Prior knowledge:
The complex is a heterodimer of chains A (about 110) and B (about 110).
Chain A: E1 5-7, E2 10-13, E3 19-24, E4 31-37, E5 44-50, E6 53-57, E7 64-68, E8 74-78, E9 87-94, E10 104-105, E11 109-113
Parallel strand pairs in A: 2-11
Antiparallel strand pairs in A: 1-3, 3-8, 4-5, 4-9, 5-6, 7-8, 9-10, 9-11
Chain B: E1 3-5, E2 9-13, E3 18-25, E4 32-37, E5 44-49, E6 53-57, E7 60-65, E8 70-75, E9 84-90, E10 101-102, E11 106-111
Parallel strand pairs in B: 2-11
Antiparallel strand pairs in B: 1-3, 3-8, 4-5, 4-9, 6-7, 7-8, 9-10, 9-11
Amino acid sequence: DSGVTQTPKHLITATGQRVTLRCSPRSGDLSVYWYQQSLDQGLQFLIQYYNGEERAKGNILERFSAQQFPDLHSELNLSSLELGDSALYFCASSVEGRNTDTQYFGPGTRLTVL
Amino acid sequence: GQNIDQPTEMTATEGAIVQINCTYQTSGFNGLFWYQQHAGEAPTFLSYNVLDGLEEKGRFSSFLSRSKGYSYLLLKELQMKDSASYLCAVSPLTSGTYKYIFGTGTRLKVLA
């Protein structure tokens, strides 16, 4: 158990809908990362937050947005969902969000868009 | 561009030794990570190399050559539970951004 929690574990929804994924980092970690992992694909970095501020952006679609709250939990919002958005979404956290920090991953949310 | 290459699949026998290679081309370099990921589960941290050489941790060792853009993960005394994907991730030295670039992973099957 990494100490990172994610809810829900599974989510099934329809195209065009909007969902929110939630992540709580390990105690003491200030930085949160979101990743998407599609079938047979590597982990694709989406976005990173550090202490409430956006720090880095990867291949995140405009339909997706995220934020980190004062209590350091983070939410990833996915809207106008398409079939291709079906994937595992992982949240990771690290102490300070530096390039050299080890990232600890949560168990993931499996999103299925029908 | 930024690129990481790993073999897609490898097969080895229980008790054997296997070496999983990773080559990378990134704009700058700030360290290389190896993660293990069982199917449908979260990646778990295995090792971090930033200097050239071999880092040993029990049955797992990781090697880095920065001049060659090359790393390998060495797994000894393979066990069935080692069947998993092994992800190589590089931290590039890019000003203003803090992120890893992950390879697509090497799926290792350990046979009895």
